[in-house]
């Protein structure tokens, strides 16, 4: 009864969205019209950077973002920032099943949860031609991706590496049996902290 | 995958996304408690959806996707303005006008005085008809959290609507009266 009354009360408040829809479509058409100009400017800008900036950049920063790091950052951006729909598993049992397929026990899965976060969803994905388990943790509005993939052979270098790609901060390392990457927009070395915690467990 | 950014894509976006602007605006108004802010929020939501529309997979739940963007925009605005929505527990006595002139007004006033989390789950599940799981995906919380918030929100609504409760109780008492029953 309460539900019905509430629904009736709210639905009876009609709002005229015609003007709003018109504004949205105008904005979209304006955006579409400006795209050629933007591409032109972008192309000119990229050319200028290539001519003048790239040699200097490589001289100053010889290390570039690893392909898998960039792919992980891209996945995080598309799926958690742009919110492109994906078929996520949300129950712990379902996620644990996925994790088991990647050789990760439920105990490890639970232990990997960073302090202050909770496991929200998971799915399998492909980064650089390899299958990874993509876990998403959240802490209020902050969200964090953890990608875990089985290694074909044990790593020789277990150091944690960090990189930035756009607004995404990435940290990753190779362990005995797994590769792990953490991607987040949270500042303050959050990705590195989470990766360090994970490194103690894998 | 949808078409590119041409006229065809614009028409497709207009066809599949804009019919949901009414629902989005309805919820936005309850989130922001300000008509112009709600309009801006929905406009930004739809424009953001358009920006990501080339990656949208036809056949998936566009309504849930739009609502998720709406809530992300809402929380993002809150962070930007350092004015993250504050949950304030309000009592019935201070907010329900007596006597309530209209039941619908009474209901909306009660809803507006709920904490944001409670208001949100009532709007998504009861008003907009999303399942608890869909609401959980939209809000980025576990489904169990949605269920418990929903339960608490209903309790709070009942507590905020004393007049009807009293009237309801009175009628129940009258119906139980053996003299009247005869």
Would you mind describing this structure in some detail?
The complex is a heterodimer of chains A (202) and B (182). With 202 residues, chain A is of the alpha+beta class. Chain A has helices at residues 2-11, 18-60, 67-81, 92-101, 106-111, 190-199; strands at 118-127, 130-139, 142-150, 161-165, 168-174, 178-184. In chain A, strands 1-2-3-6-5-4 form a six-stranded antiparallel β-sheet, sandwiched between helices. Chain A is flat and about 65 Å long. With 182 residues, chain B is an all-alpha fold. Chain B has eleven helices and no strands. Chain B has helices at 7-16, 21-32, 35-51, 62-80, 92-95, 103-112, 116-127, 132-139, 143-160, 162-176, 178-181. The interface between A and B is large, with 38 and 55 residues.
SSE blueprint and pairings:
The complex is a heterodimer of chains A (202) and B (182).
Chain A: H1 2-11, H2 18-60, H3 67-81, H4 92-101, H5 106-111, E1 118-127, E2 130-139, E3 142-150, E4 161-165, E5 168-174, E6 178-184, H6 190-199
Chain B: H1 7-16, H2 21-32, H3 35-51, H4 62-80, H5 92-95, H6 103-112, H7 116-127, H8 132-139, H9 143-160, H10 162-176, H11 178-181
Helix pairs in contact in B: 2-3, 2-4, 3-4, 4-8, 7-9, 8-9
Distance between the termini of chain A: 53 Å
CATH fold assignment of the largest domain in chain A: Phosphorylase Kinase, domain 1
Q: What separation lies between the terminal Cα atoms of chain B? A: 69 Å
In oligomeric terms, what are we looking at?
A: heterodimer
Evaluate the radius of gyration of chain A. Answer: 22 Å
Mean pLDDT of chain B: 78
Look at the structure and give the CATH class of the largest domain in chain B. Mainly Alpha
Helical fraction of chain B: over 70%
- Largest contact between protein chains? A-B, 38 and 55 residues
Question: How is the main sheet of chain A built?
Answer: 6 strands, antiparallel
CATH fold-type name of the largest domain in chain B: Arc Repressor Mutant, subunit A
Compute the CA-based radius of gyration of chain B.
20 Å
Tally of alpha and pi helices of chain A: 6
- Helical run tally of chain B: 11
Low-confidence stretches of chain B: 82-100, 168-182
Category by helix and strand content of chain B: mainly alpha
CATH architecture of the largest domain in chain A: 2-Layer Sandwich
